[in-house]
Amino acid sequence: MYAASVSAPSREVDDLPSPRGLPFIGNLHQLPPATHHLTLERWAAELGTPYMFRFGTTPVTVWNDIELSHAVMRERPHRYRRYAPIENILKEFGCNGLFSIEGAAWEPQRRLVMQALSIPHIKAFYPTLAAITERLRRRWEAAAHAGRVVDMIEDLKRFTVDVTSALAFGEDPNTLENERVLLQEQLGMLLPMLMTRVNAPFAYWHYVKFPRDRKFDEAMIAVHRHIRELMARARARMRDETSAHAPRNLLEAMLALRDASDSVITDDDVAANVLTMLVAGEETTATSIAWALLFLGTDDALQARVAACARRVLGDSAVCPGYGAMRELDLCEAVCTEASRLHPVAPYLSFEPLEEVRLQGVRLPAGTKMFMLNRPAMMDPHNYADPGRYDPDRWLHDHRHESTAPESASPRGAHEPRAYLQFGAGPRVCPGRHLAAVEMRLVVSMLTANFTAQLATNPAAIREVCAFTAVPSEMPMRLALR
Ligand code: HEM
Prior knowledge:
Helix content: 40-55%
Strand content: 5-15%
Structural class: alpha+beta
Number of strands: 13
Bound molecules: protoporphyrin IX containing FE
CATH class: Mainly Alpha
Radius of gyration: 23 Å
Shape: globular
Number of helices: 16
CATH architecture: Orthogonal Bundle
Order of helices and strands: EHEEHEHHHHEHHHHHHHHEEEEHHEEEE
Oligomer: single chain
Strand order of the largest sheet: 2-3-9-6-4
Largest sheet: 5 strands, mixed
């Protein structure tokens, strides 16, 4: 277990410092949904960590310690679980897949997803990835010709949904070339509603549905209809095959498992995982790339440097010509990694112990809510030299694995990769991180090699909006052909 707990004096959760709240609602009134992550970070700076606040009458402990975060994440699924309300709400959405499932059911599903998102699988899938990137280029070319401002978040989400569907389900919905995409809009409602309901003081939607809840219910019915049709088409393809072969994608692997005679999983489990993959792979990756555009679109010198790197690797091609060539595109990934250090897609991760634990001298009964903040450690000069500075070079090869001390011999100073927890850690670390890195390299190299991009709004107007993940309020850009 986490060692820092051993010698400290014992405290109870109620003994922790806490912002003053109100009876019944606790601190809810101080936590506007869209910016509550910023308030949690401010309280950490004011009160120190760990501290405690209340969602209604439920106490939530807040932590800021890299080693503790690693220890908690490592000890899953046996000693800690994800914040239980996430699973309860996702069950209601028909989305209790790999992200939220707990206990013995988690491991077999994890194995399937890991295989589907493995490097060899992504490598074999590269031609499709390049073709989808080329579609995005054509979309941006048309916008550049028309002088149209591009909503980059919207386009990047189309890109990531097409990629995830083609890779994991063997079907490419081509949302990039369909002007009005309902699926996109419907999926986009899931994470904000998850956050609203996870943080609600009680399950109001069991008693009364507001227009927003009704619209969401309709969207989920349509999404599930789409998923069942996808599953039926995959089954038909598998039946029609003349010779038996290994499953070609995650959906086929899940359906083969489901249809085996001793199966313990149901069609609902398969559908929940399809939805999980769509949601987990869409906004996270799109957002990480979008934040990088904020810096690229406001710094001509940086953009020219990334463009030169991209042009060198792409040669005459509009899109990176092969999986191997992507190795030379470290800078394209680094601009995204560095952007998400300053604007983390996951500002905090939330867990609960499954048994009583003692951490930093605090006794936490089983089920105590724990929020682990990610950003404060990434903005700590002991972990990253000059932390307020956007410096993608700190992630380039020579600077990795350097001493954590600020006075380190490295000319760039401290660089502690363990403080970067954007993909989580331990056995449940994000299985999509390689795919996400490939998407970042492909999109950033294609964009900078073919276009110049200028942010089409005042950068100060762009805010972080927390809707489970923290997304930019907007990222409009004007593109011109190079
Ligand atoms: C930049 C993009 C991404 C970010 C920042 C991100 C972030 C995360 C984080 C923080 C977790 C929780 C990890 C933990 O608990 O230790 C996670 C889990 C997960 N992610 Fe990602 N993710 C990204 C892309 C993707 C992609 C592209 C996919 C799939 C297409 C994906 C699928 C999943 C799944 C299925 C889980 C649950 C794993 C489990 O609980 O075993 N993610 N992701």
